[in-house]
Amino acid sequence: MAAKLDHLVILVSSYDESLPWYGALLPLLGFEKTRDHVWVNGQGIGFDVRLAEEDARPYERFGAGLNHIGLEVETVEALEAVRAAMAEAGFPVPEIQPFGEDRACFFKDPDGLRVEVGWTAAP
């Protein structure tokens, strides 16, 4: 039996800061908003953005748990378009990094969770 990824629940410290960020990024990557805090793509994978408990520890990049989320686009031009659209929406955007012939951009959500949007060159 092979399982498939169904959804990710992202706990955020502020809906006011995080919902606009995910609301800008996820549609650029083919996700459709289905509820106030849920986006789903054509493969049935969902992002559910929920409010963290007030006394929860903040995200730590190298702490135990999730390090980053990786999403892949089909062309390097699509990667460049996602980066440009996030900049145009007013969010900080990092440079696109080369990994051999592959490329990736590691965006940070308002809590510091990295969301990688990458492109892999044909073998």
UniProtKB/TrEMBL annotation:
Transmembrane segments: none
Source organism superkingdom: Bacteria
PROSITE patterns: VOC
Ranges for domain VOC: 4-120
Pfam families named among the record's database cross-references: Glyoxalase
InterPro entries linked: Glyas_Bleomycin-R_OHBP_Dase, Glyas_Fos-R_dOase_dom, VOC_core
Full protein name: VOC family protein
Organism in which the protein naturally occurs: Parasphingopyxis marina
